[in-house]
Amino acid sequence: MSSAKDNILGSIRAALREVPAEEQPEDIEVPRDYRKQGEGGVIDIVERFAERVGEYKATVNRIHEEELKDTIAESCRGEGVEALAVPDGFPGEWLPDDLTLLQDKKDAPLSHRELDRSDGVITTCALGIAQTGTLVLDAGAGQGRRVLTLLPDYHLCIIWESQIVELVSEGFRYFEASVEQEGPPLTFISGPSATSDIELSRVEGVHGPRRLEVLIVSR
Amino acid sequence: MPEHNTGADWINVDFISVTMKNKKKTPTFEETAKAYLSNTQLRRNIGHATHTIREKRETVVGEMPDWEILREAGSQLKKRVMRHLDDYLLQLEASVQEAGGKVHWAGDAEEANRIIADLVKEQQAEEVVKVKSITTDEIGLNQALAGEGIRALETDLAELIVQLAEDEPSHILVPAIHKNRSEIRELFRKKLNQQELSDRPEDLAEAARLYLRKKFLNAKVGISGANFAVADTGTVAVVESEGNGRMCTTLPETLITVMGIEKIIPRWRDFEVFMQLLPRSSTAERMNPYNSFWTGVTEGDGPREFHLVLLDNGRTNVLADEVGRQTLNCIRCSACLNVCPVYERTGGHAYNSVYPGPIGAILTPQLRGLDDEGAASLPYASTLCGACYEVCPVKINIPEVLVHLRGKIVDRKKREGGLKTKTDPEHVGMRWMGRAFTKRSRYERAQKIARLGQKIFVRDGTISNLPGELSGWTAMRDLKPIPKQTFREWWGDRDE
Ligand code: SF4
């Protein structure tokens, strides 16, 4: 045991002398009657999600499953994407035929430099939160390693309507079991990278992808 | 966003000297504030920033019907953590280790810097990338690393500006708010070798992006602070806007995170409280662009080594004060700065600390100790208007702590002051007033004497200039003269 550790724990215990020995952390009551369950219907929730993602200056498209392949091809063309990074587990049938696909494989991962030189990345996601217009990625199949959605300048993200919850609380609870068991890295994305550091004027895009496009897909 | 960083050399040097028990004095708030008060450009910038964020915050908080419950939940969760901090720290240590991370304990700044420098050297890195963290500013990490031949590169746009300018941050959230676009262009032209550069914020951000991208790709070690760490799962969170936090915590092989021991939350679920409170209070957004949560190391994704440095550096002293303890609830949102009438006029530099504004006025003196004259002047940098308490997402009663600290400072002066304090005019005056208030007859007699004596000092219905020793009292405030007739006298005369 390091002495710094002993000292710190000793100081804490001395500092907390007035706390009764029998007090349990749960004895300090935490009100939990804030909103935990959304009340909006599915249509409202999807609508709100689309609206709020859009407010962050991301491009939002609502499409049907059958339009997926065409829309993806069109978006990539529109954004001038030639080399597209694709995570492990991303459905191949949606991918455009006329692009250079940079497949990230578990046994053959793309290097940081390859990703840096790519024009964009396409991924699915784990969840959407309507209240805040947030996409959550948990590095699962079709989403890939964190770095994939970080280095390319354009991120095209696909979300099913059924993946959208209404409230932030619902979002965190959704991941509770997986964090407690496997602890995957989670990334919450709400709009493209941004800064307001220069005279408070907002600039979209500093280090992360400067362009974020979200396809909300119905079945 | 909240957690932060700087190249604030003299502040850091000062911090190190203080932590090394070399009782170097910082200047008082009063001394420094005077200089900043006359800088009208700075005041205009700060005023614009604080008002803009303040109004936006009100809007996004206003759309939350359960805001007050969330505040109460946040406050109670933090109270729970503080009252059982030893257990929670041990739990955090165990869960981080189980997830493949290493945990280090640092009693003070020197120890923390030593641990980090050694870890960096182990990786044979000469340059590290950093995401802004006020905690690393507090311990003067950049300076300490420089002393070992390691360059710590700030990657947050504002922090980069501050670092390149060899300046100090002036706001928790927008540290370079005191610099305007043409100043930043000049700086980038010189330091980033960018001759052809306009002063559009887009172009300036692009220049920083290009410069830093190379650095990120080559970095072996990343250093970050932490907004939160979950005791139960070992999950650490960094909340940010630009993506440099994601870069620093994902790209390098080794990640070192420094956090104050108070940043713990009990369970993953508690994020549903704090991740609603923080973004709306801080950048006044429903959610800030990026939040990263990682639990130890994940094979094939991100750093191979993760080190968590737990820092005390005076926090256990804060914990020991039952009134001051709530200061540790702070989630560094900076909402209290934006509503503070004093901060708005002086800016952040006047506080001579990495923690400015109302939170700085209570945190700095408790961390540094009241025998630091500069730190002990901070509890007086307030009008006690209470605006900070009202906006604080974790309900820290800042005015209460301010008054409590003022009381401690006065007691201390009395104890240590000896004859000099006893003959100090303020002290004598207070004693005299105290005597006068003990008896009605004494009080009334005192009123009569004062009414006669004040005549020559009253100008336009106020007293602004008392003579000699008493001038100290009126230097900063006007006095109302004692009226010609008191209420009791008027009442007595009324029936006649
Ligand atoms: S004291 Fe409260 S309002 Fe001020 S920075 Fe800390 S959490 Fe925010």
Automatic annotation (TrEMBL), chain A:
<feature type="domain" description="LUD">
    <location>
        <begin position="46"/>
        <end position="217"/>
    </location>
</feature>
<dbReference type="InterPro" id="IPR003741">
    <property type="entry name" value="LUD_dom"/>
</dbReference>
<dbReference type="InterPro" id="IPR024185">
    <property type="entry name" value="FTHF_cligase-like_sf"/>
</dbReference>
<dbReference type="Pfam" id="PF02589">
    <property type="entry name" value="LUD_dom"/>
</dbReference>
<dbReference type="InterPro" id="IPR037171">
    <property type="entry name" value="NagB/RpiA_transferase-like"/>
</dbReference>
<protein>
    <submittedName>
        <fullName>L-lactate dehydrogenase complex protein LldG</fullName>
    </submittedName>
</protein>
Automatic annotation (TrEMBL), chain B:
<dbReference type="Pfam" id="PF02589">
    <property type="entry name" value="LUD_dom"/>
</dbReference>
<dbReference type="InterPro" id="IPR017896">
    <property type="entry name" value="4Fe4S_Fe-S-bd"/>
</dbReference>
<keyword id="KW-0249">Electron transport</keyword>
<dbReference type="InterPro" id="IPR037171">
    <property type="entry name" value="NagB/RpiA_transferase-like"/>
</dbReference>
<keyword id="KW-0677">Repeat</keyword>
<keyword id="KW-0408">Iron</keyword>
<feature type="domain" description="LUD">
    <location>
        <begin position="91"/>
        <end position="310"/>
    </location>
</feature>
<dbReference type="GO" id="GO:0006089">
    <property type="term" value="P:lactate metabolic process"/>
</dbReference>
<keyword id="KW-0411">Iron-sulfur</keyword>
<keyword id="KW-0813">Transport</keyword>
<dbReference type="InterPro" id="IPR004452">
    <property type="entry name" value="LutB/LldF"/>
</dbReference>
<dbReference type="InterPro" id="IPR003741">
    <property type="entry name" value="LUD_dom"/>
</dbReference>
<dbReference type="InterPro" id="IPR024185">
    <property type="entry name" value="FTHF_cligase-like_sf"/>
</dbReference>
<feature type="domain" description="4Fe-4S ferredoxin-type">
    <location>
        <begin position="328"/>
        <end position="396"/>
    </location>
</feature>
<dbReference type="Pfam" id="PF13183">
    <property type="entry name" value="Fer4_8"/>
</dbReference>
<keyword id="KW-0004">4Fe-4S</keyword>
<protein>
    <submittedName>
        <fullName>L-lactate dehydrogenase complex protein LldF</fullName>
    </submittedName>
</protein>
<dbReference type="InterPro" id="IPR009051">
    <property type="entry name" value="Helical_ferredxn"/>
</dbReference>
<keyword id="KW-0479">Metal-binding</keyword>
<dbReference type="GO" id="GO:0051539">
    <property type="term" value="F:4 iron, 4 sulfur cluster binding"/>
</dbReference>
